[in-house]
Amino acid sequence: MIRPTRTGWGLLLVGALLYLASFTSQASLLLSVMSLLAGCLVANALAARRSVRSVDVRPPPTTVLAEGQRVSQPWEVANHGREAAHCLALRSAAGSLFRLAAVGPGQSLLVVPDLAFAKRGVFRYDAARLTCEEPFGLVAVARRLVVAGEVVVCPAVYHTEPPPAAGYDLMVGGRHKGTRRTTSGTQFAGVRPLRPGDPLRQVHWKSSAKGRGLMVKVYDEELSGRVTVVLDGGACGVAATFDDAVRCAGSLMFAALDAGHHVEWVDAGQMIPRIVPPFADVQELLEDLARLEMQPPAARSATGCAVALRRAVDMGSSRSAVSLVLTVFDDATAEFVAELQTAGRQVAVYLPAAAATLPTGPGLAVSRYSATAVAAAGAPAASTESG
Amino acid sequence: MKSARHQLVLLGLVCQGLSWDDYVAPGLYALLWVACLAAPAGRLRLRPSFEAAALPLGVAAALVLARLTGQSAQFALGHGLALVQFARLLRPLSAREQRLSLVIALFHLGVACVVVQDLRFAGLLLAAAWLLPRALAEVQAEAFAAGAGGPDPVPAAPGQSAWRLPVRTQALVVGVMVVTFLGLPRGSYGSPFSRPAIRSGDQGTRLDSVLDPRRGAVARSRRILLQIQGERLGYLRCLALPEFDGQVWRAERRTGWRRIYGRDPLAGCLPRRVQVKYPALLARVVPTDGRVVRVRGTFFHSPVETVHGIVRAEDMGRRGSNTYEYWTNPAPGPQDLTAAQARWLTQHPAPSPELTRWLDETLGDSTDPYAAARRLEQHLRDTFTYTLGAPELSRDDALDDFVLRQRQGHCERFASALALLLRQRGVPTRVMVGYVPGRPNWISGRFDVRFRDAHAWTEAWFPGRGWEAFDATPRAALESPASSVADLWEAADFAWFAYVVNFDAPTQTALATRVAQALGSGAEWAARHLAWFGAAALAVVALAWAGRAVCRVRGARPAPVPDAQQRALALAAASYGRMLRLLAAHGHQRAPQQTPWEFVAALECAPAPALSEIRFITRVFCETRYGRRPLGGAEEAELERALERIAGTGAAPRTPQTPPARGLRNTR
After folding, report:
1. What is the pairing mode between strands B408-409 and B304-306?
2. What secondary structure does DSSP assign to B172-240, as a single string?
3. Of A151, A261, B152, B652, which has the fewest CB atoms closer than 10 Å, so is most exposed?
4. Mind giving me the DSSP string for A125-189?
C-alpha cells in the first residue's frame, strides 16, 4: 500500500498551489518547481517500495502474553535485496513493534520488539505492516507480513473475592466441607459399621479386627459450588468498558476456580458456553477471553441485551449462582435480575465503576469493577496488582 | 554550510532577495544567513513571541521599504517569511519546524519563478534539485533517529556504512521532474503577478535606442530577441517611416490595412517560424520579411498588414506560446501606387546646389531610376564610413552635412540619406526599421536576431517592380562579430526561454505529436523488418540458453558473492574448527554433547596459557554464529594470531576425564 505521509500531503498541497499559480503565469517555471516535488514523491515511493519488498520479517511462533507485557523473543529481519534498506518500521494494531535505522544488503538482524501490549486481543502477524518512508518521508509504503502466527494478549486478571456460588455437589478434592460423611474423599473423618452397598475397598480392617463387625472408613463431604459467569457482550458499546468487564469476568472466574468452584462461562455476544472444572488448565480460558470481541452494534438494544442475558443464563446449570458482569444496567436487565431472584437463583451483579445504578431488589449483591479491581457497591475499588 | 537544509534555506533567501534587486538584497540575505549560523548556539536565542512577530514584522518592513525606494511590494510576504527563516536559524528545530522551513524555501523558489525568468533560474533550479532531496532525506533521517512515531530505532549494524542519498535516487528525482514538466497539462490566463517585460524608465529596450548604441542599449545589444527559421530570409520589418517633415522621419499613419490572419499554411509560399523571447518588446509589431500573405500565432490578436508592409497586432504578449508562423509570397507581383501616394512619398526639402551637383556627378548619365538607385546605394556603401556615435548633423541642412561633409554615421543616416536623395530624383521611398537576421544558432539551427541586429534601410518604389529594398550602410557594419562566450550565454538563455519558460500547451502538443510520429515511424520500421527482429531475438534467446546450459554442465555458474555476514560466519567457523583440531591434537577432545562454552569451562579446569585465546575464539564464534554479528578487520587478524598462539603453545590444557555439569558458565 502506498500513501503519502503528512509531510507528503503538505508538499502535495504546495505542489497543487504551484500548479494553480502556474495557470495564471506566462512562464512554466512554477511547473518546474512542482515537477521537482513530484520527482521527490515518486523517487520516495519507488525507493520505499524496493526496501519493503526486499526485507523479510520472520517472527517467532505464536506468542502468548498478558496485558502490559512485552514480547521477549527476537524477530528476524533479513534483507534479501542488493541495497540497504533504511527507515523501516513494523507496526501492528497494538502499536509500533520496532523500527530499524538500516538493514544492509544480505544482512539479517535479530530484533526484540520494544512494545508493551497494553490491551488484550489477538494480533495476527499477517495483519502487521512493514512500513518504509525511505528516503524523504513523503510517501509511506506498507506491506503486510505473509507469515502465520499471532500474538495473543490475555487480559490481566487480578486478585478479587470469589463470586457467590450455589448448587454445591460432591467432588473429590472439593474445597468446601459439607455436613455429611461419605465413603470416599480425601479428608478422613472416622469409621462406621458396614452398610449394604458399601464397597469392600472402604472396609477399615484395623477397626473391624476389634470385634465390632466390619467397619468402613468415612470421610468429610467435599463439595464444589457452581458459578455461572455471564458477560453481557459489551452492550454499552464502549471498548474500554468492555475490556474492563472482560478483565473483571476473568478475575472472577479465576477467583472462583481458586475457591474450588466449577465455572460456567457464557458471553452473551457469542453464546458459546464453556464449563471449567476447578482444577482445569486455565490457559484455554485466558485465550478465550483474549479473543473475545465486543457485541456488534446491531444487537445492542436494551431488550436485545436482556434477551441475550436470559439465553446465556439458561445455557448454564439451573442450580448455579449467577454472576452477571454487565457493562450497562438498564430496566430490562433489572427486571431479568429480579426474575432470577424470584426463581430462587443466587445472583451477583458486577457493574462498571461509572455506571448508573437502578433500584434493585433485596439480597442482590452489586459490585463495581474498574480496570484493575472489583469492589462491593459503596466501597472504593481497591487497586490490586494484576495477576 | 551546515546541512542541506541550511543550504536550501540559503537558496530560498537568495531567490527572495532577487525579487528586490539582482545583487544587494541577495547578498544581504546571504550575509545574514552566515551570521545566523555563525552565532554562538544558545546566546542569541529569540523568544517565541519574536518568532511569531517575525512574519508581520518582515512584511511591514518590506512594505515600508518598497514605498521608500519605489520598488514593487508584491513579494512582501516572502520577506516576512525570510525573517522567520532567520529567526529559526538561531535555534535547533523540531522535525516539523524543519519541514516547514523547507516549505518556506520552496515558496521563495516560487517567487524566483516569477522574478527571475532568465538562465539564472536554471542554476537556481539545478541547485534546488540537488538540495531539496538531500534536505528532505536529512530531515527524515533525523526525525527517524529521534524516534518520532514509535520506539527508538535499532541502530545500523557496526559494519553498515553511513547512509548517503544514492546518486541514482537523485537522478530519478531529476528524471521524473523532467517527465512531469513535459507531460503536465498547463494553461496560461494572465496574471497580475506577471512581471512586465518593459519597466517604466527602461529605455534600453526600444528599437530606436538600439540602432545607435550611444543611447544606452550597449549592455543589452547581445541579447537575442527572436529566432527565425526559414529560407531566403530578408530584412525583418518592424517600423515604416514614410513621412519626412524636413527635420525627422515620421511613422506611417494608419490609413489602410488588410487582415492576414489564417490558420492553414499556404502552398507555394515560403514558411517562416519565429520564436520570440520578449513578446512585449515587440510593441505589438510582428517582425516579418518579404510580402506576407498569412500570419499565425497565439500570443497576439488580430494581426493586420499596413500599407507599408508592417504587420501589427491589437494585443500581444500575455497568453499562449511565444511562437508565430508566417508565409511570404516568393514572387509577389508589382504593387500599385496611387498618384497621391507617389506624391506623398516623394516629398523632400529643396536640395542645395552643392547637393544637386554631387548627386548629378554620382549618378552620371544614368537614366533608369532603378539602376540609378542601385548605383547611389553602392556609392554610399563604398565611399562612406559606418561609425557609431558620429557627431550630430547640422539641424538646418542635415543631408548636406552628412553627404558632403561628415560622410560617416550609422544605419539610420544612410537609410535616410538614400531615401531623400532618391526622392530628389522622383522615386517614392520610405525608411524601414527592423532587424537583420544574424547567423544560424548552433543549438536550434535557426537564425538569431539580437538587439544589436536592429537596422534601418531604404525601400523605393519603381513602376513595374514595386517596392525594392536598398541598404546603403557599408557592409562591414552588418557583419556579426565573432562568436564569444557572451553569445553562447545568450544562445543558451534563449533556448531556456524557448524550451522551458515558454513551454506551453501548444508546444507540448507539438512535442507530443513529434514523439508520437517518431514512435509510429519506429514501429513501422520495426514492422517492416519484423523478420530480422524475430531472428535477432531468437538468436539472443538461443545464445542465452546455450550459455546457461554450458555453465550448468561445467558447474561453472558464478557462485554468489558471500556478503560480509556470511564471510564472517565462514571465517569464525573455520577458526573455531581449526582451534578444535589443534586442541584435539593435544588430547582435548570436545564431547559431542558439549556446547562451546561448556567445552571452555571444561578446559578451564586445567589452567593453561592459551585459555584466553580459546575464550576469544569461542566468543567470536558464538557471537557470529548465533548473534549474526559481522566481523571487523581487526578481529579477523586477532583470530589468526590467537590460532597461532594456540598452535605455538604445545602445552595446551589437559581436559579432565569427567566432563563438568552442563551450562556451568557463560562468560558473555
Report:
1. unpaired
2. HHHHHHHHHHHHS-------TTPPPSS-TT-GGGSHHHHHSGGGTTGGGTTSEEEEEEESS--PEEEEE
3. B152
4. GGG-EEEE-TTTSSEEEEEE-----EEEEE---B--PPPP-EEEEE-TT-SEEEEEEESSSSSEE
Distance from CA of A10 to the nearest CA of B (A): 9
Strands A63-66 and A150-154, bridge-based pairing: parallel
Q: Residue B301 carries which DSSP code?
A: E
Average pLDDT taken over every residue of chain B: 80
Q: What is the mean pLDDT of residues B127-138?
A: 92
DSSP A238-269: -HHHHHHHHHHHHHHHHHHHHTT-EEEEEETT
Residue A387 — very low, low, confident or very high, per pLDDT cuts 50/70/90? Answer: very low
Largest CA distance in chain A: 126
A229 forms beta bridges with A265, A323
Which chain A residue is nearest to residue B135, measuring alpha carbons? A136
Q: Quick check: B324 and B346 in contact, CB under 8 A?
A: no
Residues contacting B276, CB < 8 A, separation 6+:
B225, B226, B282, B299, B322, B323, B324
What's the rounded Cα separation, in Å, for the pair B171 and B651?
63
Alpha carbon distance B490, B223 (integer Å)? 6
Amino acid at B423: R
CA A332 → CA A252, A307, A360, B337, distances in Å?
Answer: 24, 9, 12, 111
The per-residue pLDDT for range B382-396, each reduced to its tens digit, is: 999 888 777 788 777
Give me the helix-helix angle, B353-363 and B411-424, nearest 10°: 90
pLDDT, tens digit, for every residue of B494-540?
778 777 887 877 778 888 889 999 999 988 888 888 888 888 889 99
B506 burial type by CB count under 10 A (0-12 exposed, 13-18 middle, 19+ buried): middle
Enumerate residues 90 to 119 of chain B having a beta carbon within 8 A of any beta carbon in chain A.
99, 103, 106-107, 109-110, 112-114, 117
pLDDT band at B154 (very low <50, low <70, confident <90, very high): low
Residue B619 has pLDDT above 70, yes or no: yes
Residue B124: pLDDT above 50?
A: yes
Please give the model's pTM, rounded to 2 decimal places: 0.66
Strand partners, A218: A190
B77: left (phi over 0), alpha (psi -120 to 50) or beta: alpha
**Predicted confidence (pLDDT) per residue in B459-503, tens digit:** 999 988 888 999 999 865 555 555 667 667 777 877 787 778 878
Q: Which residues, 6 or more positions from B210, have their beta carbon under 8 angstroms from its beta carbon?
A: B204, B217, B220, B221, B451, B452, B454
| Range of lowest pLDDT (A74-88, B218-232, B280-294, B591-605) | B218-232
Q: Give the nearest chain A residue to B166 (CA atoms).
A: A135
Average pLDDT, chain A: 84
- Of A81-95, A297-311, B50-64, the range with the lowest mean pLDDT is A297-311
Residues 6+ apart with CB under 8 A from B41: B92
Assigned C-alpha cell, B388: 557609431
Interface touch A137/B136, C-beta < 8 Å: yes
d(CA B8, CA B27) in angstroms, rounded, equals 15
pLDDT value of residue B1: 58
Interface of A with B in 23-42 (CB under 8 A): 23-40, 42
Instruction: Choose among B117, B140, B159: nearest Cβ to A135.
Output: B140
* A110 contact B CB<8A: yes
Which of B100, B113, B321 to mutate against chain A (most A CBs within 10 Å)? B113
Q: Does A274 touch chain B (CB under 8 A)?
A: no
Nearest-by-CA chain A residue for B139? A136
